[in-house]
UniProtKB/TrEMBL annotation:
Organism: Caldithrix abyssi DSM 13497
Region annotation (Disordered) ranges: 134-154
Name this polypeptide is given: Anti-sigma factor antagonist
PROSITE patterns reported for this sequence: STAS
TM stretches of this protein: none
Family in the record: Belongs to the anti-sigma-factor antagonist family.
Residue span(s) of domain STAS: 7-116
GO molecular function: anti-sigma factor antagonist activity
Length: 267
């Protein structure tokens, strides 16, 4: 059994992105080392990981299985695992098994780190827009100002009572008896629409509608960004599996960034 070579370091000064450098080959005999590695990273509280494959020359199905099985734990905590520097042989297997639906790959560690930062910027932008919109709604629904309350107190109640009595007398004088011939005639009145205002909270919307709201705010955000925003308190901390989310996006015909952008333009 060949021991898997593992080294780790942080990609940024804040310590939010960890780079794991693998060396050698990964198979059934040593894949447990990967599992132990991810356990230790989770315990450390770092949930954004870049795995550098530049020194890996073979990855068995057992090794890929660890990645597919572990990534859910990181994404449930708002993080992710990104792959970088795969050699052509490993990349061919990665493509053949269609793991690109689950794991993102990048040509370099620097590109993967930049993707993490871009994802966070997009998420922060959407959240800021949501919070700004809620602040504006709260301001519009704020209680009356002291000036408004003062003006209400200055209303002459005697004048209101007098006007009300005069109106009633006028209505009474204009009232005419209804004859039997009047029945059966259809009364025609001008329709005045009533303005109905309902404060529907984002958290109360059905999941597909929540997804549409996220896309309407930022159409270029990726599927993982959509999933993370749904877990924000404004959306009721909605939890959804990545495969279920992809299925909903496909049902909504929003499963690509191009389609999401067209939807955004139509809003």
């Amino acid at each position: 059994m060949e021991k898997l070579q593992i080294d780790s370091k942080f990609a940024d000064q804040s310590g939010e992105i960890m780079v794991v450098e693998l060396g050698g080959h990964v198979d059934q005999s040593n894949s447990y080392q990967l599992e132990r590695l991810f356990d230790n990273i989770i315990e450390s509280g770092c949930y954004r990981v870049i795995v550098d494959f530049s020194k890996v020359y073979y990855m068995s199905s057992a090794g890929w299985g660890v990645f597919v099985g572990e990534i859910k734990r990181f994404r449930d905590r708002g993080g992710d695992i990104k792959l970088a520097n795969m050699n052509p042989d490993i990349y061919e297997v990665y493509q053949m098994l269609e793991f690109y639906h689950i794991l993102d790959d990048y040509p370099s560690v620097e590109a993967a780190a930049a993707a993490f930062k871009k994802d966070q910027e997009e998420i922060d932008l959407v959240i800021d827009e949501i919070e700004e919109g809620e602040s504006e709604e709260a301001a519009a629904a704020s209680p009356e100002t002291p000036e408004q309350e003062e003006s209400v107190e200055e209303i002459d109640l005697e004048e209101i009572v007098a006007d009300s009595a005069e109106t009633k007398d006028k209505e009474k004088s204009e009232t005419t008896p209804i004859s039997s011939t009047d029945f059966g005639k259809e009364a025609v009145h001008d329709f005045v629409p009533t303005s109905l205002h309902t404060d529907v909270k984002l958290a109360d919307l059905p999941l597909p509608e929540k997804i549409k709201r996220v896309i309407a705010q930022n159409p270029l955000i990726g599927i993982w960004g959509i999933r993370k925003i749904l877990r924000h308190e404004h959306f009721g901390r909605t939890k959804v599996g990545i495969f279920k989310l992809y299925k909903i996006l496909r049902d909504l015909d929003l499963d690509t960034k191009a389609k999401r952008y067209r939807f955004y333009r139509s809003c």
